């Protein structure tokens, strides 16, 4: 795949990687069909709101770039999720390493009925100049919307024209909600803008710099842990894009390697940095679980000439953390005196599938099935590797479809269901349920998942979830279900799939 | 980086809509929230896939860390329109979605809320909805994100209810509807409605809260049977009240805000006693009893109020109703000095003079507030910096700047409030003022 930075934007995930978000069956069949290119995405006759290209990730996260301004060229509701901007990172105490000199800003162009008729280009022009005058930012990200797309706003034209008049680098992001069924297209659309407009040709390489692009679902403590580990072998992480400075985005071409936390999130960026600036990358593994953290560090070390140092680090870290992991594994084993493994059902992105299945092996629990937001051909080899290790498993591919998630949770009936706030009422159950992850602004040690510390913290967190089910059971008993009973009596979570594309 | 340059003085803004972080979502958001607030109603969004989920953070969560309930967020049926629908139309997708939703989702009323995409591509949503009218109770709120903000969406929801659902009914004496409390935008909406209902019940008046009534459809249908509509805002809910007057002849009364604390609450009850010809002795007996208890209990908070915030200069940054209620309580009962009030919900021009009067007249304080109407978070920040204040009652957008830039205490009392959970907390009614002081003192609290 070649990334074409002359184009205004990336191709959709559907075109670029054959992505789908509706499938139920065996993991082996899914991989085979995707490899053969025979799998087409299917339309649902019952569908639930699940985020869009603009509003799953971008509006809440682009705004956290510390010295940039985000302009959402859209009706006023398209940026309401960004209202959290002044608080999301401010809650983290400076004692936890949060910088104190930042001030986040965003603007909406507030597209109204008049603009829909006469066009909003002049308003966008004005908003860009206003952003420059008010905040004097390093970069201004301009996010498109369904409405700006349908009325045919020439965002590229406005950017080309206004760039000469403002100091900030203008970065258009083509994230019209209707452009793709795959919300992960948002990542590529954002990275496209970053690669095209911000990353500069390296003047000098920084051999100790490691680009780490990570999703919002990895927390502040994860960042702290990764920093600690890399620092110990003389390396520095360059965490992008959340809460980064624009300069951190600009220097990505100078890094020694781009390392994944969530490989399919980082894919387009990693490939672009290699193609344009010769920065190598790897996709697997991510630093979740003790063994994978070892391998992740070793892979980084190979690109940075730290092979010797990393072995010493791993030896020391393992001495600290492996006994703790053994204790967690023993606790899980004690919870099922029948000798069976505790079953945990999680809903994950593709990236989390690759990390969570091996992590579950490590803590000695099993997963009756995997629920994946989307599936594409970017990590097929790695998924096959997982199947080889863990055996074949059932897969439901589904982007936040709450009815389907409630169905599969009830039918597999695991000991613990890992849910995020987007999973409807799947937490109401006879058995345990807990959150699948925290978000970046959560700086508590309790919420860590990455690196060695995270492996232990998350293991203990999961253990807690098996010790009291009162909340889930009470809510199940005392509140009505959203769906009719027949939904759970039939066996197909994809009951409402339309058979043609 | 890190600094905010001052605005150029008095420059003409050709595009007042362009703003940093305005404190509302779009009309679709408002209509969707009103549907979720109607218990038993199932929203069906005919829109892009993000229009439901994004409101979870932009409306529900922003209104005091609220979950969206059993039909909200990703549980909300949505046609999830993409480009091919924009080209070929989304009507078939909507038809299939309404059909499947009525099969699968438990509900008494289905409300199709149509957004920007169908409005721009010209889907005949009304015609599709009509196909289902014989089968299930169903509404169509014909809106779009670009027609206005959440407050507009609230009006459009009520408009759809009045036009499509309501029929004339026999008027029941001493029955009233509560209008003007906008779900989620008014972050204490649930508690406010319940306190008003209980207050009215105590003086023999049956109030229909509409929102959070156990049977939402029945509550909507009952609207025309009221003797009087009470609107608790100088502007939100007024169009609905006018329309109900036109259509069903129901008179209405506008109360500038949900009453906070004993003085305004008693005054409200006395007004109602006159208006609905209630038995005066019963109302006065109730007022006497409640005031006695409330002021006796105020003794418990008086010491800390005197220690923490005696005669504090206050800034209020809130929607119209919250701003009026808290300014009056602070000024008329706690002895605060209302220095500045910034009204953030973009009320229509024609109601602004009245709002300024409500905020500046009838205050015991020698200090009368400077009143601004502003939706832009950046300009609000600059306005606040021009004043010396000791307490900021605002949204959580002001949480840190109040402390860091104004050296003031701050409590989140208005949308958005991401720093506190509001389930049925309220500052309404007799006990409301004490609740406000409880929350403020929590910020101050510590041994002396």
Question: How many separate domains make up the residues of chain B?
Answer: 3
Number of separate strands of chain B: 12
Radius of gyration of chain A: 23 Å
- What coarse outline of chain A follows from CA principal-axis ratios? globular
User: Termini of chain B, distance in Å?
Assistant: 39 Å
Counting H and I runs of at least 4 residues, what is the number of helices of chain B?
A: 17
How confident is the prediction overall: mean pLDDT of chain B? 96
- Largest interface: which pair? A-B, 85 and 83 residues
- Can you count the beta strands of chain A? 13
Please identify the structural class of chain A as seen in this structure: alpha/beta
Helix percentage of chain A: 40-55%
Polypeptide structure, described:
The complex is a heterodimer of chains A (about 500) and B (about 450). Chain A has 19 helices and 13 strands. With about 500 residues, chain A is an alpha/beta fold. Among the domains of chain A are: about 120 residues, 3-Layer(aba) Sandwich (Rossmann fold); about 170 residues, Nitrogenase molybdenum iron protein domain (Rossmann fold). In chain A, α5 packs across α7 and α13 runs parallel beside α17. Chain B has about 450 residues and is α/β, with parallel strands linked by helices. In chain B, about 45% of the residues lie in helices and about 15% in strands. Chain B has 17 helices and twelve strands.
Q: Can you give me a brief rundown of this structure?
A:
The complex is a heterodimer of chains A (501) and B (448). Chain A is α/β, with parallel strands linked by helices. Chain A is built from 19 helices and 13 strands.
